[in-house]
Design goal:
- This protein is α+β, with helices and mostly antiparallel strands.
- It contains 20 helices and 28 strands.
- The strands form 6 sheets. Strands 10, 11, 14, 15, 16, 17, 18, 19, 20, 21 and 22 form an 11-stranded antiparallel beta sheet that branches. Strands 23-24-25-26-27-28 form a 6-stranded antiparallel beta sheet. Strands 2, 3, 7, 8 and 9 form a 5-stranded mixed beta sheet that branches.
- Strand 15 and strand 16 form a beta hairpin.
- The longest helix has about 35 residues, at about 5-35.
- The protein is elongated, with a radius of gyration of 35 Å.
- The chain starts with a helix and ends with a helix.
Length: about 650
Amino acid sequence: MKPIKLILTICILILQLGKTEAQETVRLYNTAVSLYEQKKYAASLQALDQLIEKGEFEFSAYFKRSYCHYNLGAYEKAIIDIEKAYEFAPKDNRYFYFKGQTYDKLKKMSLASYYLDMAVKFQPKKLYYYKYRAAFNLDRGKYAKAEHDYTVLIGANQFDYKRYHGRGLALFNQKMKTEACLDWLHARDHNKASKRLFFYNCTDLDLRNKELAPTPPQLATAPEFKNNRDSSIVNYLTRRVTYSIDNLRNNEEGYVIASFTVTKAKTIENIEFLYSTNPVFENDLKLLIQSASKYIQQAAMLNGQTVDYTYILPIRFQLDKPKHSISELRDSLKGFEEFKDYENICSISEKILSRNPFLIEVQTSNNAARKKLGLPEEIHAIKELADYSKNNYEFINEVWAKPTYYKTNYDSAWQISLSNEAVIVRISEWDIAQVHNLYRYDVEETRDVLYYEDGAFYDYLNNETLVAKGEYKAGQKEGLFEFYHDNNNLKARFHYKNDQLIDSAFFFHDNGQLKATVVFNHHNFHILSYQDEQGKDLLPNGNGSWEYTNSNPTYNTIQIVGKLNNYERHGIWLALSSDDIIIEEKYKNGNFRSGKFYENGKRKLLDTKLKSTKIQSWIFTPAFLGKTEQRKYTKAFLDEQN
């Protein structure tokens, strides 16, 4: 069998094997779900264990396994698994509700109360959460809180007579007997428990002239929002929260919780940052929130009236997968707590809270350790969020901001490198470094054909000074390209179409003075102007000498010199590299007469006669663009990849 056929056969077998393994993984997950739905939790647990060991369906597997543990009474394991699940996905109301329920089972009431409160904050329209929390608070003697939740439930459904029974109990225990009895009286014909409580507690009251006032809806409807792509302000913001180029370039990470109010007048006001571990994200986020105001169609409504409505938006800015998971860090924290190592307790707990600021268990450890060390209490998100107990607000599910650009390091030779070798940093819309191992096997050569540039890019010298920016489409230079001097002044401005220079190009001295204007036509070029740094015309009436120096992928640096007559090439034109001639051409009034190409320089005396000009528009494209398109790698980079 020929080598190419053997390689193709092996590739096909590998693909088929991968497909079979994927199908088996899906089958295993479906089996686990089916067993869970049949309430065969132990059997479902075994299937989920296999999935987790394979590293597949990580969020779903841990999430479902946490519920298996819960239903089997293994509540501590359930807490561990729900935490692991939400290391693979942004936190939402389900995370908080599950932890609230589970801590309730563990009789850790303060933790249960906190997480149930957070569940309601993240999903204020989910009535089941109010039902659970109302009963929870009633049982633990938090009667005012229970009354609030029962009032919300009754406001949502005036015929939910069971909730009048609960609210009556909450009122009665607050020594509001008349109000409690009115609730039970209203519900007694529909609810046996209300009838019984009314009989035992209210027959001594004269309620003939008293009437239970209707309970109006307590929960406002969110503002209406619409643009071409988003049907809610939540979608609008979560789709657009991302990294700026500068924050990506500087490897900025952090956690920010912003709040803002959509007013009755359909404006966005009171933009605040309730919690922020890195202020560099705040300005861009503020501008994004402000931009949403023009799409607000209707203010929030409550009982037929427009009302203000507050949103709270938690965002995690994280570039790379952390070296240690939160679960691993919490294991370390437990060890430091056992040895009463307060400094490490502070350090580890702050790392954890920077990634999940809602972990009140960890905040408590942090505060206790700081107190032992004589340090002031750290301001955490939980403390700032505690005041949000009104009805006209909503926490938006946690957003994980992800860059829409990729970062690639280059060394001084424009080879893809490790960060410690980097001289140039490229920020691009395509992933350069992750596709270097995609190959096609041809009869004569091995080359990468599955990779191409696509999108905008920005190159920075020493990660600070912008060197160049432009855009590729399907591997070809397209549109505007700009290049910059070290002092940030514009050096050159080109336009490309299908990888070819077109239209006019402008070149500038580093003091900002225009240096030259060149027009491109197919592969040819015509020089229209040429000035020195003071603006003096070096081509009066189109006559004089012209020179241009540029780096080149083949010859490193190439210099073009020649004369113009009435703006047309005339006489001898040379292309030089390393002080040796590589191209020598003769012109007369713009017409090519003859030429020679010295591939290894004229000193070698080996030339090729030219039938047409070789000094064309290619001389203007900077060499580094060609080098980045060739994609070469440093040894250190390849060693790390392997």
